[in-house]
DNA sequence: GCCAACGTTGGC
DNA sequence: GCCAACGTTGGC
């Protein structure tokens, strides 16, 4: 899951009272659909975009499966969607909790240099803010930084 | 700031 | 349903 740290950062996440947050603001159908597939206890990489270097900061886990994103109904929110309704919500979110942090972030250049990740969605020009990671890719990345 | 990629909108 | 215009994302 990607985020711009200027909007919501890994540090913000760690500072949450229960180190848990809801992932609001996803307004892309493909990204939403990937979130809908997530199950409790699924692990997630937390990625910072729009910074130098872009990097995976650590691991979170899903603690609540997809439910309607309340910001779509809030007229004062940037995420307000006039075409959505509570009866038929268009956008969903999941809750995630902090799990653990990489001792040093795993940067995008490092990922690009790592064999076995060539087909990773993140490395193939995807702007998707929620992306799938295969088990093989996951294991390779975890192995770059032992817990 | 630039620009490529790509999703969305809306006229026809 | 097509497709041009436009907006957004995100690496560099």
Short description:
This protein has 147 residues and is of the alpha+beta class. Helix content is 21%, strand content 28%.
Mean pLDDT: 94
Over the alpha carbons, how many angstroms does the gyration radius reach? 15 Å
Task: Using the alpha-carbon principal axes, give the shape.
Answer: globular
**Multimerization status:** single chain
Helix-strand pattern: EHEHEEEHH
Protein model, in words:
With 147 residues, the chain is of the alpha+beta class. The chain is 21% helix and 28% strand. It is built from four helices and five strands, in the order βαβαβββαα. It has a five-stranded mixed beta sheet with strand order 1-3-4-5-2. A hairpin with a 6-residue loop joins strand 3 and strand 4. The protein is globular and about 45 Å long. 25% of the residues are buried. The mean pLDDT is 94. The protein binds a DNA duplex (12 and 12 nucleotides) through loops.
Provide the descriptors you would attach to this structure in a database record.
21% helix, five-stranded mixed β-sheet, 147 residues, alpha+beta
SSE layout and pairings?
Elements: E1 2-3, H1 10-15, E2 20-22, H2 29-37, E3 43-48, E4 55-68, E5 92-107, H3 108-113, H4 135-144
The protein binds a DNA duplex (12 and 12 nucleotides) through loops.
